[in-house]
Every structure is written in C-alpha cells, then in structure tokens.
Amino acid sequence: MAGKNKISNFFVWIILGLLIVGLAGFGVTGFGGNTRSVASVGESEIDVNLYGRTLQRDLDQISQARGEAMRFTEAQSLGLDRLVLQRLLGQAALDESARLAGLSMGDATVSEQILSIPSFTGLDGNFDRQAYEFALDNSGLSVAEFEESIRTEIARNLLQAALVSGLRPQPAFVDAIYSYLAERRAFSYAILDESALETAPEAPSDAAVEAFYEANPELFTAPETRKITYALLTPDMLIDEVELDEAALRGLYEERAAQYNQPAMRMVDRLGFADEAAAAAAKAAIDAGETSFDALVTERGLELSDVDLDTVTEAQLGAAGSAVFALDEPGVTGPLPSPIGPALFRVNAILLEQITSFEDALPELREELANQRARRLIEDEIEPLDDLLAGGARLEELADESAMELGSLDWTGQETDGVAGYGAFQAAASQVSEEDFPEIVMLEDGGIFALRLDQLVEPRLRPLDDSTRPQADAGARADAVKTALQTQAEEAQKRLSAGEEFASIGLDAEINLGLTRGDFIEELPQDLLPRLFEMAPRESVILEGEDHLVLLRLDQILPADMSDETAQAIRQRLNGELAEAMAQDILSQFARSVQTEAGITVNDAALNAVHTQLP
Q1: What is the spatial distance between Cα 293 and Cα 282, in angstroms, rounded to a whole number?
Q2: What is the pLDDT of residues 325-351, one digit of tens each?
Q3: Contact 476, 482 (CB under 8 A)
C-alpha cells in the first residue's frame, strides 16, 4: 500500500508539471506540424511535443534562476538542447527495454492512479471528469495520450526499481570517504602586516614610482569607453500628466478584491474512516494520548500529502466547515461529515480574515493606475517616434518633438545609475556600433529609449601625471612594505624550522585545533586549505594575503573523529548519496547498452522545427 501511494504522489507532480507547461501555451500542435517524434530508441519514440515542453521547461528554470530570460540561441550554444535530447533518449531506452520484456500496466492500475490525483478532485471529493479533460486539453494532451504516458511511466519506474533495488555501497567505502572529508589539521599562524615591521620603509623614490607604473600597466589603463547619446521616456516622467478619477480607482480596487479582502482560511488535513464509530474511536485515542493524527495516517499506508487539503475556506469544507473553523488554535476535531465519509480534520494553521479598505489601499491603487496609464501613453508614442526615426530624425529632434528627454554618458559597462541600470539599455549600449541607426527599444518598466554611439574610445594607457601618480605612489609604497614583510617573515620561518616557537620570535600566534577540508577562515588566504593538507607536521609556509603575509605552521594531523555524534548522520547521508550516484551510473550504462543494441534514430528536421518555435 505504501509503495502504491508513492507512485501516486509521483504522478501528482507529473500532472502539476503538465498543467504549468500547458499554461505556457505549448500544445500538441505547438511543435513540428505533422511530425510525431524527434528521435527513437528501437520502437520507443520521443514525442515531438514532449521534447518541446521539456526544452521549454529547462529554459524557464534557467531563466528563473538567473533572473532574466535566456533565449534559445544562447541555451543552444551552451548545449542545452543536446542535454535534453540525451536525457529523453535515456528514458526511451528504458521504455524500449520494458516493451521488449513485455512489462506493462493494466487499465485498472492506470485508472486507480488518475482517480487518486487530488488535482482532478472536485469540491465534493470525487473525481471530476470535466476538470480532468480540461486540464489535459490545456497541457496539449489527449486523454488517450496522457493515460498511455502514465502506463509507460509506471513500467519505466518498475524497471528502474528492479535494476537498482538493494544497491548499497560497501561500509568501508563510506568510511574511507568520511575519513578523508573529516580529517583535521591543528595549526598555528601569525598575520604580519605593516604594523609588524620592525622598521617602516622610506617613502618611495621617483624611480620606484615610475618602475611600479611601468610594471603594472593594467592598473593605469582606461577601459574601452562608448560615448553615447540617448533619448529616454519612462512612466515616472509622465506621472504628473496622468489624470485619475475615483471611478477608475474604485474599479481597480474591485478588480483586486481578492487581494485586499481575504476571507478567514485554515490549513487542514482530512482523514476519512469507514464509519462514524471508527472515526470516533480514533479521535478518542488521540485525545487520550494513545496515538496521533500522523500515526493514524502512517498506519493506513498513506503519506501526509494524501490527506492534505491545503488552505481552505469555511464554505469549501461544506457541512464540516463551522466545526473546523470553531477551533481557535491548531488541533484535531471530528468526526465530521465529508465527501469521503466520516472524517477527522486537523487544523495546522489559522489564517485570519484580512480586510483592506478602499481608503487604506488608495495610495497603492493610485500609484498602480497612474503607472498603467503612463505606460499606455508611452505605447501610443512608439509608432510616431519610430516613424520620425525612420524619416531620418535625430535624437535631438525626438526630444524637441516629444516628451522624451535627451541625455549622454560615457559607457564602460560598469555604470548602474539612471538609465544604465536597465538591462535592455545595457544590452543595447554594449552592442551598438557607429553605423547603427537609432531605434525605439522597450525598457523593463514600460519605458522606451533610443541611443546613438557618437564615439568608440579604445582602451588606452593613461600617462603618469597628477591624476595617476597618487595610485602609482601608493602601489610602490605597498611593494616596499611587502618586500620588507617578506624578508622579516622568511627570517621568522627559519627560526620556526629550527625549533623555536612563535612567542620566542616576537609573534602572537592564533591556534586552530581542528580544521577540515570543508572549513573556511575568512581572514586567511584562499590557498591555505590545499597547502595545509599537503604539509607535514612542524612544517611552515608563508602565504600571501591582500595586504599582509601569513606565517603558518602545521602542528598536528588529526584523524576523523568516528565517535562524534554527528558522524553517524553524515555517514548515513554519504551512504545515500553514493547509492544514488551508483544507481544513476547503472541506469546510464544500462540505457547506453539498450541504445547500442536497439539503435538510435534522430529526426534532425523535427528537432529544428521545435527549435525555430522557441523564443
């Protein structure tokens, strides 16, 4: 029973994924026209729409992770399309193996899985056929296609489980990895900065300053600079011109009614019983402390997700609503009537009613509506401004004949203030050439701009003059300090190697009694860890920091503490991660073997058809 529910939960996520993809507008006719598949392993095909949806989903995930949209051409240059195809070919290989082995699921099993998915359950707790078909239609799948995908997915899942069942790494292997990761180093170190110098260095001579300047040209080289003129119009620039009436503001308030006026809600779990006597007995056992709601769920072979109703209003609970909402703190109540029979209800959280009056919401409404109307005013300006530019108008003329404001800046790619803070402007400024004609470009906030490259100034070495000499003087002095520190540190290191201690050579040492390979000390150089774990006891080294040196000595090598109370938990986690990695390796090798035996066919035309429809 528990295994069955795991499969059920697995398909809930499949459904949710399909629903999300469906909302993105990628349906059966979205890719490839009459082409059915982009590739196949033996007789197991990769549906063209599955490939398109998977590729679009990965694109969306990457875009969300980095905070800006990734175009397909960029993703393709990084090999995303090949990775997606390779992943789907691996699944197809498993499907082909299951097909050849005659592994399949009957209609009853497929039906049971679909009926158990909460996404297709109506308010009465029963399966809603209309909602089921509507959701599949939105996701670009027919009922037959979806049910066949469930049948195939279960078979593939069973095959995977059979291949990797009971797979565990040897305990000695786990212990060896843990011992390596948890091995420690006890060490002492002293930081030597300018304050540690016995004699302060003299001010650098002119010759030393000039030598530093000549040895470090990159410090005195001005970056490539683009001298840009632009015309800009943003919603904020038009706010004062926008007229707002109360009727429009109240209309927006009504549109946002769900946002400003939220009813009281409860986060609720529901566990049904065969009859009221069984439900009452369970409630009595909970009240007596003999069991718990979670324990009852587990005894049924269910997961908590199977009884989770999420966040509901009193009306959504029907006849049980008043009793559930009568609880003034989280707890269990019942037995109460429900679509699945007598049930116990557990309230996990109480969300109070939230009412925001029109007057309280007015500042936010005014700002939003004014911004919307300013955006529309700008949209109305785009075509006339495009026509002016097409007719040869200069940016200066655009500023004279419209609400656009003229500006200029020296662009090096490091600017973030004003218009330079917009991603669209940054992209245009970095790519524009002196031959390009200005064009209207949209900004992220609904504004518009056009720009012109007036001059491209190549990187150039700035002369050693009043503007650069202070930097060169400071650099030369820092070099002198560094040289003096190096000499002093080398002398101290010799004395340490001869058996003296830090205190006897006039240095205050910090002592660390157990640094592992995964630890980090902010004040110490980044190369400390790799150097430390290569050293022998009593060996010392000099490490270079940004404006200081570190004299470090390894005092002792400490083995991993296998008796530490967290060691067992870490080894168990390692055991799980290694088992998962081994399972993935086995599945990958098995898939490659099937692909070699059954053969792979790739339809390049179908792949290209999908690629051309991606943004």
Answers
A1: 9
A2: 999 899 999 999 998 889 999 999 998
A3: no
Residue 303: domain span: 264-352
Closest CA to 309 of 285, 335, 284, 340: 340
**Tens digit of each residue's pLDDT (9 = 90 or more) over 114-167:** 777 777 776 667 788 877 877 777 766 778 878 888 888 888 888 888 887 777
Distance CA 472, CA 483 (A): 16
Q: Report the length, in residues, of the chain.
A: 615
Q: Which residue has the tokens 């990769």?
A: 46
Helix (H) or strand (E) segment spanning residue 559: none
If asked whether residues 12 and 84 sit together in one domain, one would say: yes
DSSP state letter for 91? H
Residue 319 is given by DSSP the state G
Residues 154 and 215 in one domain: no
Residue 332 shares a structural domain with residue 479: no
Q: Which two tokens stand for residue 221?
A: 């080289």
- 143 and 6 part of one domain: yes
Closest CA to 226 of 495, 31, 411, 353: 411
* Nearest Cα to Cα of residue 611 among 74, 44, 63, 226: 74
Question: 508, 239 in Cβ contact below 8 A?
Answer: no
**Got the DSSP string for 96-130?**
HHHHHTT----HHHHHHHHHT-GGGB-TTSSB-HH
Of 274, 304, 218, 262, nearest to 5 by C-alpha is 304
Directed axis angle between helix 143-164 and helix 129-138, to 10°?
80
Query: Which of 458, 479, 499 corresponds to the end of one domain?
Result: 458
Are 102 and 75 in a shared domain? yes
How confident is the model over 560-580, as pLDDT tens digits? Answer: 888 777 777 787 888 888 888
Structure tokens at 298: 């587990």
| Beta bridge partners of residue 409, listed in sequence order | 228
Chain centroid to CA 595: 33
What is the model's pLDDT at position 20? Answer: 38
Q: Burial code of 305-331, b = ≥16 C-beta within 10 A, e = fewer? A: ebbbbeebebeebeebbebbbeeeeee
Peptide bond into 335 cis (omega under 30): yes
